[in-house]
């Protein structure tokens, strides 16, 4: 009896203990921090256009808005100083200065090529009749490309008359072919690029001593609104050409420079 009572009491005690054991409260779900994303405002076509224009703004954009100004001898002199300033001494830079007397009147943007050449060389007919030396020309017109050279040749018809004109550029014409042509016949006018003219001089195909006029196609601009001296490769070749004989001829006053 006692054992049963004690067993029964044990069960009751166990049951009470079970009842009195606190049930843990369910853990509250902690809220995970949400990631924040900054929503970029939608870019309108107008905004993207402005950004694109700002990013791609080049010298041509400035040139497009500026009034064209005719080139002057001072422009050429300054370009030469800027080009050689980092590699030449002060004395060497002074030696590059050209006398004002070697410059012809520059084009004021009112001339065609023929009218400009007639103005700077009024005695051309007599001059070309007296020219009989091969491997040389009396006048060189220097421009930036073969296409431009062809345009210039067409536009000088009124000036050249019966003068023999030769294309002096690299496109579709090998330098040795041009050397042979200069050896075979008398040429009065040469129109071409500074790189090819420089190469002809180096290979002995073109003698500069009889040269009387050297005209730069200075003011014309290409589709990107660049003048020939705005193009780094052309500018480099022009200055190299000047140094292999042109500067010395200018200083001796046997050669005149013109800016068309």
UniProtKB/TrEMBL annotation:
Recorded hits in Pfam families, A to Z, give: CMS1
InterPro entries, per this entry?
Cms1, P-loop_NTPase
Could you name the Gene Ontology cellular component terms for this entry?
A: 90S preribosome; nucleus
Region labeled Disordered — which residues?
Answer: 1-74
Q: Where is the composition biased (Acidic residues)?
A: 1-14
Signal peptide (from-to): none
**What is this protein identified as?**
Cms1 ribosomal small subunit homolog
Which organism is the protein's source?
Propithecus coquereli
């Amino acid at each position: 009896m006692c054992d049963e009572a004690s067993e029964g009491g044990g069960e009751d005690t166990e049951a009470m203990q079970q009842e009195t054991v606190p049930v843990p409260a369910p853990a509250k779900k902690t809220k995970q921090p949400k990631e924040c994303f900054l929503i970029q405002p939608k870019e309108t076509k107008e905004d993207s256009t402005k950004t694109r224009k700002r990013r791609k703004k080049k010298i041509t954009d400035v040139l497009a808005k500026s009034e064209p100004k005719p080139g002057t001898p001072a422009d050429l002199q300054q370009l030469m100083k800027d080009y050689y300033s980092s590699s030449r001494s002060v004395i060497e830079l002074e030696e590059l200065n050209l006398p004002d007397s070697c410059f012809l009147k520059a084009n004021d943007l009112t001339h065609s090529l023929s009218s400009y050449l007639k103005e700077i060389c009024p005695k051309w007919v007599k001059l070309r009749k007296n020219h009989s030396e091969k491997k040389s020309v009396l006048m060189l017109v220097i421009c930036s490309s073969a296409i431009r050279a062809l345009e210039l040749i067409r536009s000088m018809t009124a000036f050249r008359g019966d003068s023999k004109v030769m294309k002096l550029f690299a496109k579709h014409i090998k330098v040795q072919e041009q050397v042979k042509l200069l050896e075979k016949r008398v040429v009065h006018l040469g129109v071409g690029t500074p790189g090819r003219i420089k190469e002809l001089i180096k290979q002995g195909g073109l003698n500069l001593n009889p040269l009387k006029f050297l005209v730069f196609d200075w003011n014309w601009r290409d589709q990107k609104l660049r003048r020939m001296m705005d193009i780094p490769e052309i500018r480099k070749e022009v200055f190299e050409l000047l140094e292999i004989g042109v500067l010395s001829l200018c200083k001796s006053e046997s050669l005149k420079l013109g800016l068309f």
